[in-house]
Structures are given as structure tokens and as C-alpha cells.
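Hey, resending since the last one bounced:
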Amino acid sequence: SHLEEGVVLGGQVGVADHVKIGKGSQIAAQSGIKEDVPPGSILFGSPAQPIQESFRQIALIKRLPELFKELKKFKNGKK
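The C-alpha cells again:
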């Protein structure tokens, strides 16, 4: 793998073989990098993805029990 200038990797980041991480990229802790990363990227997760997308997914996962209850009510014809 090749890390360009100014790359910051958090703890326990995993990087696949022969991956290029672009200049100034930041990879959050415990992320998994499986393909080349463009310069200036800020990534999180496994597999790593843009950090805002990861945070949005985490927020939705936390709401799943509530959303499932609403879906069940809708399915049963209740409001």
C-alpha cells in the first residue's frame, strides 16, 4: 500500500494490499480500506465510506425499532 503526504490513519485501521491513499486523507479508527482513496477524503466504517454517510446510517440504525413499530401499525391499518 502507498500512503501519500499528510495521510492520517486512526487506530486499528485495516488497509488492503496495493491500495493508494490520497494526499491529506483522514481515515477514522477501526475503518477498513479495500480500494484506492481519493486525496482529501474523510472516511469511516468497514468498508470505509464518506464519514457523513456513515453517521447518517448509524442514526437510522438507532431509529430502526421505532420505524419498525410504525411500519407494523401501517401494515395492520392502524395510525
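The mean pLDDT is 95.

Sorry for the duplicate.
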